[in-house]
Structure formats: structure tokens, C-alpha cells
Sequence to fold (215 residues):
Amino acid sequence: MSSRNTLILLFVLLSALIIISFSIWGSGFDALFSLEGSTRFFERYSHLAGPLGAGLLIADLVLPIPSTGVLGGMGAVMGVGPAFLWGWAGLVLSGTCGYGSTRWGGTRWASKLAPEEERQRYQHLFNTWGSLAIVITRLLPILPEVLSVLSGLYGMKFSRFFGATLVGSLAPALAYTWLGAQAREHPGPAIWGIVFLTTLAWLAFLYLRRSVRSV
Fold:
């Protein structure tokens, strides 16, 4: 199997693992942490809404927790400012944990998946295109976790990864907490706002994917 196919297979397998976890436990978490469910949850624990919300966003790395609902519920209960800061911190820490889980100690696994020349090629690919991909996919489901893990596995520079994660997490943290705060009085526009942002991010990701393939 070529190293290119190996990278694609890894991407598919990681995505499949997340999808399977959603199919097994997702309905329960969706009910608990939908926008309405998250709002009730954070109202019950309003004095701890910030750290609880950040913790849930970090746990989204391994559990099928809908980050959109969590951020929206935080915004509805805490207001945009505090919810944005806590949400931003949670998203950044989640990505960093995913990166760290394979970056430190992941070289041994990467050496088994591809020869040194190919690993250098993919390291260059992630260092060249990875930042933009991370910024775009932070608004999407599944892909942020997958890219965080692969970025660490193939040795993307931490400074580039962390910088891209900081910048990329701004948009979802601000957009979804603001939409959550608006949802109490104007639920319709808030829902359509989420749909619009997600669609825009998907289109940008597909364009980026096509550009990388043509290189």
C-alpha cells in the first residue's frame, strides 16, 4: 500500500471511529447537549457553566458531544462574552490534546506507516497546508479531531498547529455562543445561521482539498 493510500486510510478510519461512537452513544448525547438540553444543563449549574462547558468541549475529542449545542447553551446562559472565552479555551485545549496524543511518541507509529522520505513529504504537506485546513475545519463536525490527531502523527510544527487552532477556534466559539444567545428570542434565524456557517465551511474545505490534490 502506498503511503498516500495509508494517509487516506488513516483519515477514513479515524473518521469512521468517530462516526461509530456517534451511532452508538450519539443519540443520548444529542438529547442531553442539544441547544435546549445544554441550556437547561448550564442553567442548573450556572455557577460552573464556564469550566463545565470547556470540559465538555475537550471531552468531545473522544465522546460524541455536539460542540455546537454546548457552545450555544453556554451563550444562552452566560452571555456572549464569558461563553466565548470559555468556549474558545475548550476548543483550543481539545485540539491540543488531540495533537499531543500522537505528536509525542507518535514518531514510532509514523515510521511504521510510511518510509522516511514519505513522512518528510507529509510533514511538509501539513506544515504548508495544515494551518489553513485547521482554520477552515474548526467549524465542521468530525474533521477537527481527525486533523488534530494526524497533524501530531505526521509532525506538524507545534507552533503552526497551535497558532492555527487558536485562530480557527475563534469563529466557532464566537458564532455559536452568539447564535445561542440569540436563540431564546429568535430561534429560527439562529438555526439558519448555524446551517449557513457549516455549509460555508464545507465548501471552503472541499475547495482546499481540490487545491492540495492539484499540487
